[in-house]
Amino acid sequence: MIASYLPFLLPPIVGALIGWGTNWLALKMLFRPIVPFRLGPWSIQE
After folding, report:
1. Tens of pLDDT, residues 1-46
2. How far is residue 29's CA from residue 23's CA, in Å, rounded to a whole number?
3. What pLDDT score does 8 carry?
4. How far apart are CA 10 and CA 20, in angstroms?
5. In degrees, to the nearest 5, what angle opens at C-alpha 21 toward C-alphas 15 and 23?
6. Is 42 exposed, middle or buried (0-12, 13-18, 19+ CB in 10 A)?
């Protein structure tokens, strides 16, 4: 019985997991403490 619903349930579940993972990674990258490398008036984020 559940096997007949699997094609309809699997894509949203997989999409939700991928979306959660990318949002988690984006927040980690956004709020990660970054030390800039300064060269004269320019600075490069490492």
Report:
1. 778 999 999 999 999 999 999 999 999 888 876 677 788 888 776 5
2. 10
3. 92
4. 15
5. 100
6. exposed
- The tens digit of pLDDT for each residue in 10-20 reads 999 999 999 99
Q: Cα angle at 24 between 21 and 28, to 5 degrees?
A: 140
Yes or no: say if 37 and 44 are a contact pair by the CB < 8 Å rule.
Answer: yes
Best CA proximity match to 29, nearest among 43, 45, 14: 45
Reading the block at residue 35, the tokens are: 């030390």
